């Protein structure tokens, strides 16, 4: 899944090459640096605000969404609150929404499968999942998810039977969506933390189901 | 409808339902400057210097040729610059001079 | 989301008149058409849904500024509601290949909807 040329984690303060061999910044990086420095010099933004927001962004990963999902699987009352008001229920777990977005949690069931897309840009539930993968932002997924969702899902290896309704949510304005996947069979005895470890980002976008744990027999 | 009129009426990002090739499941960890650019967008929105909707409009206003040719965060930083020029908060000269300064800093061998 | 019922014990003051936009115009279950106009400059109603008919599934709270105006720097002022609208795939794409029950959901600003 990870681009082989970028197999290590970026975003923290280490150089890509030994000091002295670092390649000069590209045109757009120079533009970003110049723009940011001008805003700081003129007092339009504070010197630490970007660094601080990077820390916020780095703290948001699919592990948060997975905890929300696992909690909903084991706590029916939390699940009810999550489906009624996704943002408030996430905030209960300490997940802050650093923007003005609302969150609608879409529950997959035996009869309904939800899929999330943003045809106009790249709207995504960043406070609970972090930043979206590139494929979510590229033309093929955005153009096709709303017209042939079953074909798109099949390209992810997900085949939805014809008696299951597909609902594609196109995020465009203030609402972001998180799919609450179905709890797989064979997980009856598992605790919340183990359940959370099964939940993937792509399952919370709705392009794959949550797989049953390896080594367990599916009943 | 003429091709030109179609370009005006349908913004370059409005691609839902168009035909496209197979999904290629590409992803990459952001380069440090890309992540700074993302954080910058958030801060600009928090302060309503450039709100999220202005950012989207600024990217659309680049036109389909630039939208197609530039990377995701490349589009953002060009759009941010254009918007602040329009608002009179920066001038093209300010940015050009600062970009030269930043480039010169990297061109100078570090001791 | 759906409008919350008033908490028990909260008595509404009589005689208050709500301003335009404060109260949602549409309710869950309303049949609506997404308008077919073509604004230039900026919009958030994708072309593929223009003129299509659907059902209001939920009112999105709170009310918000029109994003076509927000895009030009308007950050405060009058607000209206977004609605989560359900549209059948077969309504959007007459030659849709999948089951008839498949559908789309999208949030649409009040000024883009009319009752059918």
Report on the architecture of this protein.
- The complex is a heterotrimer of chains A (219), B (111) and C (116).
- Chain A is 40% helix and 11% strand.
- Chain A has a two-stranded parallel sheet with strand order 1-4.
- Chain A has two domains: 26-58, no CATH class; 62-205, Nitrile Hydratase, Chain A.
- By secondary structure, chain A is an alpha/beta fold.
- Chain B is mostly helical.
- Chain B has a single domain (30-107), classed as Nitrile hydratase, beta subunit (Cyclin A, domain 1, Orthogonal Bundle), CATH 1.10.472.
- Chain B contains six helices and no strands.
- In chain B, helix 2 (32-46) runs parallel beside helix 5 and helix 3 (52-60) packs across helix 5.
- The radius of gyration of chain B is 17 Å and the shape is globular.
- The N and C termini of chain B lie far apart (62 Å).
- Chain C has one domain: Roll (SH3 type barrels), CATH 2.30.30.50.
- Chain C is 7% helix and 30% strand.
- Chain C has two helices and five strands.
- Chain C is globular and about 55 Å long.
- Chain C starts with 30 loop residues before the first strand and ends with a strand.
- The model of chain C has no long low-confidence stretch (mean pLDDT 92).
- At the A-B interface, helix 1, helix 2, helix 7 and helix 8 of A face helix 2, helix 3, helix 5 and helix 6 of B.
- Strand 3 (165-170) of chain A pairs parallel with strand 4 of chain C, so a sheet runs across the interface.
Structural class of chain B: mainly alpha
Report the order of strands and helices of chain A: HHHHHEEHHHHEEHH
Number of domains of chain B: 1
CATH uppermost class of chain B:
Mainly Alpha
- The average pLDDT score of chain B comes to 95
Task: Let me know the CATH homologous superfamily of chain B.
Answer: Nitrile hydratase, beta subunit
Please tag this protein with its features.
heterotrimer, A: 219 residues, two-stranded parallel ribbon, disordered N terminus, C: 116 residues, mainly beta, SH3 type barrels, five-stranded antiparallel β-sheet, 30% strand, globular
């Amino acid at each position: 899944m990870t681009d082989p040329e970028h197999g290590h984690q970026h975003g923290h303060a280490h150089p890509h090459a030994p000091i002295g061999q670092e390649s000069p910044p590209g045109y757009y990086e120079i533009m970003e640096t110049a723009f940011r420095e001008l805003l700081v010099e003129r007092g339009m933004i504070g010197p630490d605000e970007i660094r601080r927001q990077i820390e916020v962004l780095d703290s948001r990963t699919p592990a948060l969404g997975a905890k929300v999902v696992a909690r909903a699987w084991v706590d029916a009352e939390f699940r009810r609150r999550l489906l009624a008001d996704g943002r408030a229920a996430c905030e209960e777990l300490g997940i802050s929404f650093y923007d003005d977005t609302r969150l609608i949690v879409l529950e997959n069931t035996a009869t309904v499968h939800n899929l999330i897309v943003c045809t106009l840009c790249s709207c995504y539930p960043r406070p609970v999942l972090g930043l979206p993968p590139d494929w979510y932002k590229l033309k093929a997924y955005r153009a096709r998810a709303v017209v042939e969702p079953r074909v798109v899902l099949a390209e992810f290896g997900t085949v939805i039977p014809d008696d299951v309704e597909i609902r594609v949510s196109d995020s465009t304005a203030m609402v972001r969506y998180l799919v609450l996947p179905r709890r797989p069979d064979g997980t009856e005895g598992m605790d919340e933390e183990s359940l959370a470890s099964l939940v993937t980002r792509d399952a919370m976008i709705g392009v794959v189901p949550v797989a049953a744990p390896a080594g367990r027999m599916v009943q | 409808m003429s091709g030109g009129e179609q370009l005006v009426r349908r913004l370059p990002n409005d691609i839902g339902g168009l035909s496209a090739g197979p999904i290629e499941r590409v992803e990459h960890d952001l380069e440090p400057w890309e992540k700074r650019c993302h954080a910058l967008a958030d801060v600009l929105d928090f302060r309503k210097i450039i709100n999220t909707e202005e950012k989207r409009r600024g990217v659309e206003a680049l036109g389909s040729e630039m939208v197609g040719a530039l990377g995701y965060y490349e589009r953002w930083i060009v759009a941010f610059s254009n918007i602040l020029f329009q608002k009179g908060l920066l001038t093209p000269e300010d940015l050009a001079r600062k970009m030269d300064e930043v480039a010169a800093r990297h061109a100078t061998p570090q001791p | 989301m759906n409008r919350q019922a008033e908490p028990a014990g909260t008595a509404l003051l009589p005689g208050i008149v709500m301003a335009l936009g404060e109260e949602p115009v549409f309710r869950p279950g309303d049949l609506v058409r997404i308008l077919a106009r073509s604004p230039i400059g900026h919009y958030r109603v994708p072309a593929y849904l223009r003129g299509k008919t659907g059902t209001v599934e939920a009112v999105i709270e709170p009310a918000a500024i029109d994003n076509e105006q927000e895009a030009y720097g308007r950050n405060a002022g009058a607000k209206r509601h977004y609605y989560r609208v359900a549209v059948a795939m077969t309504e959007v794409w007459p030659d849709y290949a999948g089951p008839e029950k498949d559908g789309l959901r999208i949030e649409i600003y009040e000024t883009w909807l009319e009752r059918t």
